[in-house]
Design goal:
This protein is 28% helix and 26% strand. By secondary structure, the protein is of the alpha/beta class. It folds into two domains: 9-383, ANL, N-terminal domain (Rossmann fold), CATH 3.40.50; 392-491, ANL, C-terminal domain (GMP Synthetase, Chain A, domain 3, 2-Layer Sandwich). The strands form seven sheets. It has a nine-stranded mixed beta sheet, with helices on both faces. A six-stranded mixed beta sheet has the order 6-4-5-7-8-19. The longest helix is centred in the N-terminal third of the chain and has 17 residues, at 42-58. The model has no long low-confidence stretch (mean pLDDT 91).
Length: 495
Amino acid sequence: MNVEVGPTEISFGNRISRLAATKGAELALTQVSATAERSLTWSELDHLAGCLATSLKAEGLGQGDRVAVCLPNCVEHFVADVAAWKLGAVPVAIRWDLPDWELQRVLDVLAPRVTFGGAPDDVTARAGATTLPLSDVVSPHRFGVCSSGSTGTPKVILHTSPGITRDEQRSTSAVVEAYQALSDPQRLLVPNALYHSSSITTAVLNMMSGNHTIILEGFDSEILQRAVARHHVTGFMAPTPMLLRLARSPALAVEQFDSVEWVQHGASPLPEWLARFWIEFLGPKRFFTSYGSAEAIGVIACRGDEWLHHPGTLGHGVLGTDVVVLDDDGCELAAHEVGQIFLRRPGGPSGTYVGRGVAALEMHENGFATVGDLGWLDEDGFVYLADRRVDLIVSGGVNVYPAEVEEAVSEHPEVADVVVIGLPDEEWGKRVHAIVQKAPNATLTSESIREFARSRLARYKVPKTVEFIEQMPRSAATKVNRALLVEERTTHPPG
């Protein structure tokens, strides 16, 4: 397998070795939990990965082979990644807490040559004590992630770019860098699960830039704040549930964020009130919103000062991304008309699917692609998200977007989390149903939630039923399986 490498480019594996030679005793990775921290220097990372790669080569792992990295957030995750890169293999991050049946379905699709699963000790146990000289080879895909999307069918998304970089690379967040230069070095915090595409993307960019990467074992608002202050973190990316929990943390103090140059939101709709909170807390030039996908069809983003002139926006096309909104017939819609959001980036999507029976990306003429999200454009070309087409609730013949209802309900100070779904209803076809996790010491009732929603939403959008649960069933990446929530309440109605 021949991967073309330019005269100024080097493989990911070789890059780590060079960083070990130049930055040996400096910290490469730090893993943070509630009670302890574990770190690896660049020399330690390169040595451990080299030992593991030597062992894996003896097992037959080679260029282009896939490696399933089914591990929680830990330094060993990156040891496995680097070992794979040193052999030209492709590390694919998989959610570590999948039930056996679901995990096996993913592995059947991925067909990995090597699998790391369970405890982080699985990595060190398979590494030998020595490292042998290895040929410098390039991974044809820098990494992969797994998704079932909205279909429930397992699929693997491989990054089409090979595992190559440059010695002079200095990039942690391309979105932020599209607006302003970042200090060097960066100290990146990764609060989200590494199997999420945005987490692994920013972590890999930061590592290849020779920067310190700090990983949270699991999200906790107070642990994050301590890690930011202790390690002088310069930036991090977080989805809405994490930003919400931070905003509602009694311990949140702006002084803890003195070192932070940027916070980037992504991966989920952002309520307007929460965006305003973070813009005011950090300042408009330190907060960014972004929209993309694991398929990398393009990027939409904006900085806080732009957002204030276009409240509620996702942003506009950046990094060469063009945006159009189309109706079901593929015709371009006027400003403020809701349709499917299509993006086009230079060179086309940089994600490719692996999996039997996985539908290809929906493409339009001239290279535009969509992942099925609904939204609209304003007169200035700023994009606004309505919802996922698959999540749309048609109630009484009108469209209700769960994201809008969730935004309204989430603003209640006694709501810790909320998910809105559509449940079958004889009268309405689908009724709007709110699942609410109360904040500590909350005195919420179904009627108080509905009354609060009525003060913010049209009557047809107000939840007709409200359910309270102890803990929202979100994954470590803060995702929630809406289809499963609907199925559980259709088969076994609450109450």
